[in-house]
Design a protein that fits this description.
There is one protein chain. With about 300 residues, the protein is an alpha/beta fold. The protein has an eight-stranded mixed sheet, sandwiched between helices. Helix 4 links the parallel strand 2 and strand 3. Helix 3 packs parallel to helix 4, helix 9 crosses helix 14 and helix 10 packs across helix 11.
């Protein structure tokens, strides 16, 4: 990030990302009174992922709702942004004319048409971020002006509750200051790491699609308890809490999952019997195959 006496890539953005990891609204207000330009963020496309990122920004106090502008062809999804207090429009160009940091969150097959539409109003000051799965940085750069600063982000749905797992990769003209700005903002939505673009499709298979895989496992855990006589609502709540608690332990202790698994097992106890059943059912192989299949599909969509 730029130093204390220098301007950040976008006016006012430096004040947003400094100090605490998640500054509150009071800090943003103080920055505004010091004459800093407020950070204005645009979303072209207003689906679930765009809403999740915007909601994370607002809840963490990174960006004021009134400084977020979203566009979509109809009001079907824009109503969710309006409920957050954001501004909305049906004009994609208006988003770029009002905001210098813009997220493109359209369906992948729609994105080329959208980029062709907005390309004439893209300037050297814009930072453009694609969250469209399978659209490569080279494709984005081909469809935009030659020196456009482009980054690619692979988020997942838990960004909605500020517990997302995200990776980002930068294009040829996006420097470390743009990457740091974006990473600082996205930390409002969870964990964000910069990676080579080759890892983005793998992340899609592991974490983007992985949300559905984890939900399937949570459902199966609960149904096992239901089979044994536990009420359904209680079983699903306990299964979800078990996943949450285990994930927190893995993160906070920094242990390899195998170590935590070993800690839970006792000789001749309940857990080792259950693990044996999972091995007989091929849980590991099925999970690995699921990530492989999702990654391969992401690569197909990227045209690799």
């Amino acid at each position: 990030m730029t130093g204390a006496g220098r301007r950040s890539p976008i006016g006012g953005a430096e004040g947003v990302g400094r100090g605490k990891a998640r500054p509150g609204r009071g800090e943003m207000a103080a920055a505004a009174t010091q004459g800093m330009e407020p950070l204005r963020v645009g979303f072209v496309g207003a689906g679930r992922m765009a809403e999740a990122i915007a909601q994370g920004f607002i809840r963490a106090g990174k960006v004021e709702a009134q400084h977020i502008l979203a566009s979509a062809p109809t009001d079907r999804n824009l109503c969710h942004f309006q409920a957050l207090g954001c501004r909305t429009t049906h004009c994609n160009r208006e988003v770029l004319q009002s905001c210098l940091l813009v997220f493109f969150a359209t369906k992948p097959h729609v994105l080329p048409t959208v980029l062709a539409e907005v390309a004439p109003v893209v300037t050297a000051k814009h930072i453009l971020v694609s969250v469209a799965a399978g659209v490569s940085l080279s494709t984005l750069e081909e469809l935009l002006p030659p020196t456009a600063r482009v980054l690619r982000v692979s988020p997942n749905l838990p960004c909605m509750v500020q517990e997302g797992a995200m990776v980002m990769a930068r294009g040829r003209h996006a420097g470390s200051s743009e990457a740091k700005l974006l990473q600082t903002l996205l930390e409002a939505c969870g964990q964000c790491e910069e990676v080579p673009e080759a890892h983005v499709d793998i992340h899609t298979g592991l974490s983007g699609s992985g949300v559905a895989f984890v939900c399937a496992f949570s459902e199966a855990l609960a149904e096992g308890a239901i089979k044994m006589g536990m009420p359904g609502g209680l079983a699903h709540r306990i299964a979800a809490q078990t996943l949450l608690g285990t994930a927190k332990m893995l993160q906070q202790k920094g242990q390899h999952p195998a170590q935590l698994r070993t800690d839970v097992c006792t000789p001749g106890g309940t857990t080792i019997y259950g693990l044996h059943a999972l091995e007989q059912g091929g849980l590991r192989a099925a999970a690995m195959s699921a990530v492989e299949a999702a990654t391969s599909r992401a690569r197909e969509l990227s045209g690799k």
